[in-house]
Write a structure and sequence with these properties.
Elements (H helix, E strand, L loop, with lengths): L9 H10 L2 H7 L2 H6 L1 E2 L2 E2 L6 H7 L1 H16 L4 E5 L6 H8 L8 E5 L4 H9 L7 E7 L6 H15 L4 H4 E5 L4 H8 L4 E3 L18 H13 L6 H13 L1 H6 L5 H12 L4 E7 L5 H15 L5 E5 L11 E7 L7 E3 L2 E5 L8 H25 L10 H12 L13 E6 L2 E6 L11 H15 L4 E7 L4 H19 L3 E6 L7 H6 L4 E8 L13 H16 L4 E6 L3 H16 L13
Length: about 575
């Protein structure tokens, strides 16, 4: 019987994928898949067959390996990988799994907070051994440009030539490409076939975003040329796209797409993702893949950590990733298990192949879910408005940062000021932020189902303070309100999940928070101007799209702000107004 929420069962969905040869369409780049996988009339499906192309052109992979060996030979021991979203998420996963440490240490940099640059600088004792690789798979990403400008100043201060310690990987004629061209910085194509049909969230495992860090690791281990090809060959066999097309019912990735579609309500499904210990970065990568690709026209897949998703959340599916080959893949007792034995291997190359196979598999699931719910999975149109707004604010007079573009109320308590959109004159400047939030949550819940509660921290904060804030957020969202939550870190989140928050599943309520005091750079010149502009621009853009969003401004540093927000959420959690009608206090 069809699930009342979705209008289709998992079996119906799988049968349709088989009958309409959806995977064949994807591989041939025709039919509905070509339409859904295009942006501005241009196909963005090169990721589908990039690995077999690389395996058929081993000389291309060996070129990347030679480039990595040459970097090490000339004395590079630190690589600052400056990028946002898909340009850096897979690199962060590699680093957390041990592939970013060896003869060369890779330092992912995805923030416009001076504190993030200070953290990188503190790890590099000798600038002569450092190289910055700036990466952008979007045409308008500017954070890597700000990183290049900062590092160029640091290098010049040390008497070093920036062109010898900086390189760029990006799309032709992007903002970053123009910047590099004007300054004669070395540029490398992201796609080894010379194409430009791969978006950032599909950049692993087939582009330099994945291949270069891995090549650096292999070169540091003394591996001979060919190691990249061996890992990719193993990954492609494990992924088995040929088998998936021939018999989708036997593919765990096609079955997962069917299970997600069957659990969905009007194209919306919440995915609670559990990974093996140490593999949590895979969830971060999958979150961007699903939410930036599918968060459109009020539909999409929202990804949560297991503890952030209530056990009885509607329209949800729990997914467990395991390397235990004794388990069977598929849906059992409400949990869909993905099995990839390679990730449990003691061999680093085999584990790497397992990671690449998982990347490819989740990309296939994403495309198939988009096919089933008619979601264009290329492009991220909703975020361009906030990018333009952030650019204008960054380049305007300082007073513009405090001027909203719609009527709002400023509620203050201590060093925390909360900008809240008016609601029929209910609040005024004398209203306490906690009382307002509790009242707002009560009214909002009465009007519609809350998809989830989001708190986005702009800038770098102490990990212990963030963990305490998450515990408070969990108490309020999961235990008191019975809804999922996200605790996001910006500006990285604006490149990984903002498309979904602005145009995906409805019912999201967000609070963007930014501190007004920031660390001074320990080297070079860099300000938090861009960070502050981004926080204000995303707040404005969300409200302009009728997505309720609050802006918290804290007159102190980011860690102090996080502590103040924790106190705010703890107070809201015990406010009677935060409870639905009929509920009682404990």
């Amino acid at each position: 019987m069809a699930d009342q929420a979705s209008g289709m069962t998992a079996e119906d969905a799988l049968e349709r994928l088989t009958r309409e040869d959806a995977i064949g369409q994807l591989r041939r780049r025709d039919g509905a898949m070509a339409r859904l996988g295009s942006e501005g009339g241009a196909l963005k499906l090169d990721w589908v067959e990039m690995v077999p192309w690389l395996l058929a052109h081993p000389e291309a992979l060996e070129q990347v390996e030679r480039e990595a060996a040459a970097l090490i030979a000339r004395g590079a021991r630190h690589v600052i990988w400056a990028g946002m979203g898909g340009s850096v998420l897979s690199v962060q996963a590699l680093c957390r799994l041990g592939y970013g440490h060896g003869a060369v240490t890779v330092h992912p940099l995805d923030s416009s907070d001076p504190a993030a640059l200070n953290a990188v600088a503190s790890d590099i004792a000798d600038l002569e051994t450092a190289v910055m690789i700036a990466v952008a798979l979007g045409m308008t990403s500017e954070e890597p440009i700000s990183h290049l400008e900062w590092f160029a100043g640091v290098l010049r201060d040390a008497g070093l030539d920036p062109a010898s310690h900086q390189m760029v990987m990006t799309l032709p004629d992007s903002y970053l490409d123009r910047y590099a061209r004007d300054r004669a910085l070395p540029r490398f194509p992201l796609q080894l076939d010379g194409g430009s049909g791969i978006g950032g969230r599909m950049s692993a495992p087939g582009t330099r975003v994945f291949l270069t860090p891995v090549a650096l690791y292999f070169a540091g281990q003394g591996c001979e040329p060919g190691a990249l090809g061996a890992a990719l060959r193993m990954a492609w066999a494990a992924y088995d796209l040929d088998g998936a097309r021939a018999n989708p019912a036997e593919s765990q990735w096609a079955r997962l797409a069917g299970a997600l579609a069957g659990a969905a309500w009007r194209g919306v499904v919440r995915l609670g993702m559990e990974t093996p210990p140490g593999w949590e970065a895979l969830r971060d990568w999958t979150e961007q893949l699903m939410e930036e690709s599918l968060g459109k026209d009020s539909k999409g897949v929202i990804v949560f950590a297991p503890e952030a998703l209530p056990a009885d959340a509607p329209a949800s599916l729990r997914v467990r990733v395991t390397g235990d080959s004794r388990q069977a893949s598929g849906l059992d007792s409400g949990v869909f298990t993905i099995v990839e034995p390679l990730i449990a291997s003691p061999d680093m190359t085999e584990r790497l192949a397992g990671l690449a196979a998982l990347y490819s598999g989740f990309q296939l699931t994403m495309a198939l879910y988009g096919y089933l719910w008619n979601i264009p999975f290329a492009g991220q149109p909703a975020v361009e408005a906030y990018k333009a707004g952030a650019r204008a604010l960054r380049d305007s007079a300082p007073a513009a940062l405090a001027r909203p573009v719609f009527e709002s109320a400023t509620l203050r308590e201590g060093r925390l000021a909360l900008e809240a959109p008016f609601r029929d004159g209910t609040w005024n400047s004398a209203t306490k932020p906690a009382s307002m939030l509790a009242d707002w949550l009560r009214v909002w819940r009465a009007e519609q189902e809350l998809a989830y509660l989001d708190v986005t921290i702009n800038g770098e904060a102490d990990p212990g303070a963030l963990a305490a804030l998450e515990a408070s957020l969990r108490r309020l969202a999961v235990e008191r309100l019975g809804i999922p939550y996200k605790l996001r870190r910006a500006p990285a989140a604006y490149h990984s999940t903002e498309q979904s928050e602005m145009d995906g599943p409805p019912g999201v309520a967000s609070m963007r928070a930014v501190a007004l005091q920031h660390a001074a750079p320990v080297m070079g010149a860099y300000t938090a101007r861009f960070l502050e502009a981004q926080s204000l621009a995303t707040w404005q853009a969300m409200n302009q799209r009728k997505r309720p969003c609050f802006l918290a401004l804290y007159d102190g540093d980011t860690t102090g702000m996080v502590t103040a927000l924790r106190a705010l959420l703890d107070t809201v959690a015990v406010e009677p107004g935060a409870l639905s009608s009929g509920e009682s206090e404990e």
